[in-house]
Each structure stands twice: as structure tokens, then as C-alpha cells.
Amino acid sequence: MASLVNADITEIRQASAGLSGAAVPSMAGGLLLVGLAAGIGYATGDQSRFWHAYLLGVMYITTLGVGGLFFVIAHHLTGGRWGTTVRRLAEITAGTLTTSAVLFLPILALNFSGSDVLYPWIDRPMVEADPILASKQYYLEPTWFAIRTVVYFVAWIGMARILLSASVKQDDREPMKQARWMQTISGPMMILLALTMNFAAFDWMMSLEPHWFSTMFGVYFFAGSFLSFLAMLILLANYLQSKGVLNQSITTEHFHDLAKLMFAFIFFWGYIAFSQYMLIWYAAIPEETLWYDVRQQGPWIAWGLLLVFGHLLVPFLGTMSRWVRRTKPLIGFWAAWMMVMHWVDLVYIIQPQVRGASALPVPWLEAIATVGMLGIFIGAWMRGAAGKWLLPVQDPRLPIALSYHNH
Amino acid sequence: MSKTHPSHDAPQGKRLGLLAQFAGPEELVAAAEKATDAGYQRVEAFSPFPVLGIDEALKNPRTILPYVVLMLGLSGMCIALLMQCYMNGMEFPGAPWGLSGYDFLISGKPSFSIPAFIPVTFEVIILLSAFGAFFGMILLNGLPKLSNPLFRSERFAAATDDGFFLFVEASDPKFAEAETEAFLSSLGGSGIEGIDEPVTGHAVPGFLYLVGAAVATLALLPPMYLWATSGTTSTVPRISFFKDMENQPKVKPQTTFALFKDGRGMRVAVPGTVARGGLKDDAKLYFGYEPEDGFVGGPRRIEAMLASYSVQPVADGPDADGADSATPPAADQPKEENWVTEFPVKVTKELMERGQQRFNIHCAVCHGLDGGGMGLVTKRALELEQGTWTQPTSVHAESVVEQPVGKLFNTISNGVRKMPGYKEHIAVEDRWAIVLYLRAIQRSQLATADDLPKDKLIELSNLN
């Protein structure tokens, strides 16, 4: 396919400015659901479970945003071509990190209020009395935790804004100069992103069990994060095309490529998750095994097996075929599957740490909180997209991307 | 093979097909498209570089290579899992040729444990998949192929430079020499030429293959014979490749050597020599008992030792090589009253703690942390019903409690019944530390109310 000339373009390429207003119901509905979850949590006296569910929801949308940021930076860094057609969608997704940061504020407030329903290390006397925690007491400390959280979000939001604004500027003028600028800054940005993601995973999720540590946890977080973003991007592209948006620009070839990346990251996630498990299982050191020990009690066993099969083996085989990857409804199905499985993964990481919960109840509270967060996320995405081109229309690599073919 | 290089004019074999040259990649794709549209099925394209769209234009069926790779990957998974199940998870005692398997407990993991098997399984899947992809690609491409009839066309050499060719095979059902030639030229093909099967010379006589196979098989016999003899018993010396490595001119332990007068390869220490750390002058400390004549083993032991040598030593000397080398013979067991009853080392809290630590390291695996005799090894042995296992005597048994410290020290040093001696593993001070700790745990089990401090006693009586 040769690149399109203007007369051939029948697709919608620009989001209407009115999208901003349309975002309000989605955001309001999302907030309402999160509020409902909070109400139920506090009414039933199960604050610990609500706050874990809240963290779960924030993590779910944050991983989408960070995954998007990684996609954009990696695309610039590698001089990628095929991805140019979906780059703006990823840039807008990375822009939602601002919303994630705002949604994280209640957790910081909870820490400062001295309540240890979420992070056990808030309980200082307990930390000082415990020899393992005593050595971590200066790291796991509310103020320092808050400072780090702010650093992570400032870094991410900053990178997302810089890249998005350069990309939007490119739509009007100096496309070559902007393209070079984005490529130049993507190297340092990648280093910054890798470091911040790693420590963010340690702080936000690993420290839920402060005794436990896994140096692989940051990579685990990254694998799940980029995988869920790819799944979201496939679903988003499918949805937009059903509305007549970008259905000429995003071709079967791009779906095929996104699906290939998703396939690779399904396996990468499994590789990392298993590596983390096997090293701990083999060494059998009590302070390392306790994390998995909790997850091998009662229904969590089944939940773990759900991950092994649902997050790794079944989708791995399911997305193996080229035909599946090039058939939009099928790859859309697997993308939706992976988004659910990413949630299952986060539940597995976060919910067993709820204090006083010996068995996994039906995770409806968690589901309400996450759906609410997704509503807010969609609203934030629409606000971010409003009035923008959904394609970097002047990018010098766009013609190559449009005529791209898989072999 | 014929001696002369075949030329176009040479007598030709069967017609294989028609070759046509095209101006460039676009023309090649267009021509291929038209040819396959016209119903030709066996069309091949040749170009100096991969041409985009040529696969679609030739309407080639998609390669089966992915399925080959998938199948080999799955086989790799099965092979690796079965191999590890058999080697790690099962044992058939007495199976011949080392095929018994080895069901061995590693790090307390089950002998059949999937997580431990996954890394190997993963690697074998990768290996076989890579083999499948690499060799499958080569085989499916019809390689290795030493020659192609097309190479006989001089024009065809341009296919590695700037030539774009289409070849219609004669085996195509639609192939007809004249029509196909006209069709190709209508597509814009130039220099259309027929390619014929090369006229081959004399074939290799069939019996040569047989001879080759026989020679190859016979060549295997000598190495197989060497391999077989190296592992079997025989009345003749085995064949050896590296004689000077296997028989080196040096004196080995426990052998004779003619150069010395007594004929022994190993030399006796010069009388009066004391090995490093071998001067065990404090018998109480080193052996745990007070010998009657001043040093351990007594002169009788030295006499017995010397008598066993074929040659009398030059002079009698004191026990010079250190009495560390042998357990005192049963006849030499000291009398009960000779055992040390007081610690020959300074009893301190540090020594007690050291003793506890050493006990937990060296003793507790069999004796149990409380000395009761149910350590992990004992438990496991009882679980496996090992008939050869002797359960350690409880250190709280009356017969042990009554023993003087020197005797306990001797038991640790030299062992008793199934228990091996530990003097090579544990330093003298540490052995005494263990004895001290033993005394403590004995007391912990046999304590009376009088052993308790007053306030604790009052506390306890208040509980009742």
C-alpha cells in the first residue's frame, strides 16, 4: 500500500474538542464507584481490604500509563517506524499518569495519618522491635516514602509531557527537528524510567510485606505493565476503528506487530514471574518464602494456578498463530483476556497482604474499585485526547509506517 | 562426471523449463503475478535481493516451517520432562549399564519437582526449536544442493548481480514449450532459453557404496574395542595410549622402593621428630584421661608399632609422630578412675556459647537439638527404615549422665559404635566446649526444683 494522499483519507484522524466534556460522566461514574467501594469498606469495618483494593485500582491504571510511556520512549530510542501510527495513542495514555498521581495522594494521606491498614511499616514500634524491619526503618518511613513517590510521578509526568508536547508541536512545524529532539532525549529518559519503575514497584507493592524482598520485583512490575498497555492499545485501536477513527492508518500489519509484542511479553512476564518464584523456592530462606507461603494457602493456590494458566500458558498458545494475530476480533479477545489477567496478577500481588483476611473472598470490592479507577482513567484519556490529532501527521516516519508490511 | 565442461551446444538431457530475464523487481513481480494468474503453478523467481511482494505474486503456499518448529519445541518439552523424571525422580536399583536413575534428595526438595525441572525443559525447548528452524529451513529449501541446472546458463550468473529471472518448470501442467515461450516474451521477458537436465557421465558403481559402508563400519571397531576393554576385567594388560602418563617413575604411597635399605617407599620420621601440632603433652586436655605412666598409649603402643615394621629402627624414642593417628586399642582403654572429671579448660560463658553453637552444627543433626537422639538424620533414617542405622543414645540416659567429662570427650574424639570420631573435624577446645554444653543440656532435662532461683520457684508455686 502506498502512502495515502489527502483525497483518499476517509478516516477520522482528529479527536473533537468536545471529548473533554464527554469525559465528565466517565470520570464522575468512576469516582462514584471508588467512593462506593470506600463506603462499603468503611461500613463493614474492613478498611484494610478497601485500601488494598484502592491501591490495586491505582496500580492498574498506573501500569497502563507507565507502559504507554515505555512504549513511546522505546519507540524513539530504537528509531521505530511501524509504531508511528499508534504513537500518539501511547502518548495520550502516558499523559494519564497525572491522574494516577492525583489518585495516589489519598494513600500518602493515609500514611501520614498514622494508619497502618495498608503499609504495616507505618507502625513504628513494631518496626523498631523487629530486627529485619529495624534495618529498613529509615527507608520505609512515611515522609521519605512520600518524597520518593513524588519523585517517581514528577519524573514520569515530566517525561510524558515533554514527549507529548514535542510530538504535538511536530504536527504544526519543524517535524524533522522535533523527531531528532525526541530521539535525543529518549536515551536518558529510558534510564530514568527504568530506575523509577524499579523503585516504585519496591515501594508501592513490595513493601506491603516489608520483610520480603525480591530484586526481580521491579522487572516483574515492568513486564506486567508493558503487557497490559499493549493489550489496552490493541483494544483501543479496535474500538476506535469501530468508530471510524484511524481505520486506514492502523492496518492489519500494525495489529500483527502489536500482537507479536504482546505475545513476546506474555512469555517475558512468565519468564520473570517464574524466575522470581524458582529462586525463592529453591533457596527456601524463610524471610523470602513467606511471601509465597501466604499465597499458597487456601484459595490463593487456585488463584496462583489461574495466573500460570491464564496469564501465561493459555494466552501464549492462543496468540501463537499468525492468523490469530492478524484477525482483529480474535486478537481483540486475547487483549481483553490479558487485561483481565493483569488485574488477576495485581490482585495476587496486593490482596493477600490484607490484614486479617485468611481466605480470598470473592473479589467484588476489588472489582468495584478497579472498574471505578478505569472509569476515571478513560475520562482522563478522553480529556488528554480532546482536540488533538490521533496520529503524528507530520512525522517523517509516518509514510514508512503506513506502507509497512510484515514478512 | 564428464571430463569436459558441458556447454549449450553439448547434447542435452530432458527439458526442465524455460528461463526468462526481466528488467527490474517491479517487472519481475508483475510478470510473476500474470504467470500465476494465467494458471502456471510451478514458477520460480530469482533476484539479487529479496523482492517485496514476490511471495504473494508467486502464490506460494505458506511455509510449514512454523509447525515444524512447534512440533520440535513440544517434543523438546516432552523429552526434557521425561528425562528429568527418570533421572531425578525414579530409581531402579540394579538396573544395568548405569540406567538405574538416581532418586536423590536435594535441598529437601521432592525428587519429582516441576519447578526444578522447568529451566532444563525451557532450554531443551529452545534448543530443539532452534534446530527445527535452522535445519528445517535448510531442508525445506532443498539444501544442501551442490549444483543446479540453472547454473549452466551463463546469463543466469547475473541473478547474483542485477538480473531478475522467472523460471517456469516443465513439470507444470500448463507448460508447453512454444506457448510458454511466447507467453513469457509477451510478459516482457528477454533472452528466453530452455534449461535442460545435465547429461551425466558414468554413475558411481553400486558396489563402491557397499565397500564404503563396510570400511566405515570396520573403522569403528578399534575404538570400540578400546572402549570395551577399558571397562572390563582381563588377564592381559589393557591397551594404553599414554603409557608414560599411566606409569610415571615416582614412588607412590604404600609401595616398595629398592633404593632404600629397608625397601620401603615411604619413610619413617627421624626419631624425635614432632609433627606440627603433634606435641600433645597435656594428656588431660588432648585425650581426656590421666595415663598411668605419663603419656598416652604407653610404651606398649610404640613397641607394637615398631614390631610391625620389618626393620628395627635405629633408636627407640618417645612417641614422636603424635598419638593422634590411632584410636587407643581396646586393651589400652584407660581404667574408669583415670578419666578426667574436671574440665582441663577454663569454663566460661563464652565457652558454653561456643559449645552450643558447635553442638548445633556438628551433633544436632543426629542427636537432636536437645540431645535426645532424634535429630533430622535419625528421623529420616527411621522413616526410611534403614536397618543399618543405630539410633544415638540419648545424652540424658543415666549411663551417659554418669560418665566423667573425659569419657564424653573421648567419645566425641574417637566415636563409639556407629558414631565416627570427630577429632579431625573439631578442634580440641571446641570438643571440650561441646562437652560443657552437653553437661548443660543434661542438667536442663534432669533439673530439680532446687536448681531454680528462689523468685522463679515462688512464681511457679503461685501458678499452682
Can you offer a commentary on this structure?
The complex is a heterodimer of chains A (407) and B (464). Chain A has 407 residues and is an all-alpha fold. Chain A has one domain. Chain A is built from 16 helices and no strands. In chain A, helix 7 runs antiparallel to helix 8, helix 8 packs across helix 9 and helix 9 packs antiparallel against helix 10. The longest helix of chain A is centred in the middle third of the chain and has 32 residues. The model of chain A has no long low-confidence stretch (mean pLDDT 91). With 464 residues, chain B is of the alpha+beta class. Chain B has three domains: 191 residues, no CATH class; 56 residues, no CATH class; 103 residues, Cytochrome c-like domain (Cytochrome Bc1 Complex, Chain D, domain 2), CATH 1.10.760. Helices cover 42% and strands 6% of the residues of chain B. Chain B contains 15 helices and six strands. In chain B, the strands form two sheets. A four-stranded antiparallel sheet of chain B has the order 2-3-1-4, with helices on one face. A two-stranded antiparallel sheet of chain B has the order 5-6. The longest helix of chain B is centred in the N-terminal third of the chain and has 27 residues. The chains are: A mainly alpha (407), B alpha+beta (464).
